[in-house]
Amino acid sequence: MRAIDAGILICTECHELNKQDPDADEQTCTRCGALVHARRPNSLMRTWALLITAAILYVPANLLPIMTASSLGQGDPSTIMSGVIQLAQHGMYPIAAVVFIASILVPTFKLIGIGLLLFSVQRRQPLSAQQRIIMYRFIEFIGRWSMLDIFVIAILVAVVNFGRFASVEANLGAVAFASVVILTMLAAVTFDPRLIWDNTESDDDDE
């Protein structure tokens, strides 16, 4: 049985259990005073908006140069994939693999995973609640590793600054990539995981 079936609302701020008042238009938490809802208002709409924006920015994030490393006044801009290829060509395969996973696979999986999660919840697709919650928790877990490239660039820009001898500059690709990471993290936050359990019974009936 779900909490909502028992007339209980959970505060998203302090996690206090509140007895639902069917006559109240708005209800506040008895502990912290925050507004409580059976489900987050417009959760699916907000998550879709963030996800679509992130998907649009994902294209320039991978096509535009993410940074330019110059040595003795000469340097070529590098995209994420070209950086991975250069690392592999120099024999730094573990680092290349880490960058590829964190900067290519993780954002791609998050975009596809959140999209599938939204579609399965909204369209009642045949995914069990257990499969959905595992996917949601995994998306939340891997989200923090997507900023690896941005951290590396920020450190290089701050440390490697020797004028004409050597320098590193961030390019527009870094801005687009950081925007994708932030938007996907916000999409995971705005999605209400309680929606996963709302159509569990219908899913079980279809199996």
From TrEMBL:
Keywords: Cell inner membrane, Cell membrane, Membrane, Transmembrane, Transmembrane helix. Its main location: membrane. One of its GO terms (cellular component) is plasma membrane. InterPro entries: PqiA-like, PqiA-PqiB_transport. It is found in: Cell inner membrane. The chain crosses the membrane at residues 48-72, 92-120, 141-160, 172-191. PANTHER family: INTERMEMBRANE TRANSPORT PROTEIN PQIA, INTERMEMBRANE TRANSPORT PROTEIN PQIB-RELATED. This is Paraquat-inducible membrane protein A. It comes from Pseudomonas spelaei.
